[in-house]
Write a structure and sequence with these properties.
alpha/beta, Rossmann fold, seven-stranded mixed beta sheet, two-stranded antiparallel sheet, 8 helices, 9 strands, 34% helix, EC 2.1.-.-, Class I SAM-dependent methyltransferase, transferase, methyltransferase activity
Amino acid sequence: MTDSADAIISLYQRHATAYDRQRGRKLMEARWLDRFLSLLPAAPSVLDIGCGMGEPIARHLIERGCAVTGIDSSEPLIGLCRERFPQHSWQVADIRSLALGRRFDGLIAWDSFFHLRQADQRLMFPRFREHAAEGAALLFTSGPGHGEAVGTFEGEPLYHASLAPEEYRRLLDENGFAVVDHVVEDAACGGHTIWLAQRR
């Protein structure tokens, strides 16, 4: 599994066109995104961590008045974001070294954070805190329980990992976030396990 974890960045760089083509634009995530937005002020700043090509998640946020900053390790995917949404900010960066020097009203890590090894996921929570304004909302997806799994994309291994729910709760609490909602394998959202939290 170590090799597949190491290959995530390269995988999304080499297969950006295929990912853009295959990623559905139907927004099954809309209910969760709108709950996230309900916690934010008007015209909020949002950091999209692992934004991919900006569709459909960032598009939904932009269409609702958010000023989006997106980061992703895949230069081709960021290139698509810049073409599609040139009024917003898009940066090529490894989310594990996230250090933008500013705070946002909302942070989202949808289908991105769970590609990190468990040890790297633990280190992300202080980074979330450093980028979260007072009262900021945090929305992310994880696995349903502690473990690692390897799927496939374009015939290559695709790494995923998760901590146990109780560890996510502890890390959120230690970094100043209160859990607003948590659903394991939400059937109304494609089986995603979802966390919505807010900075105290």
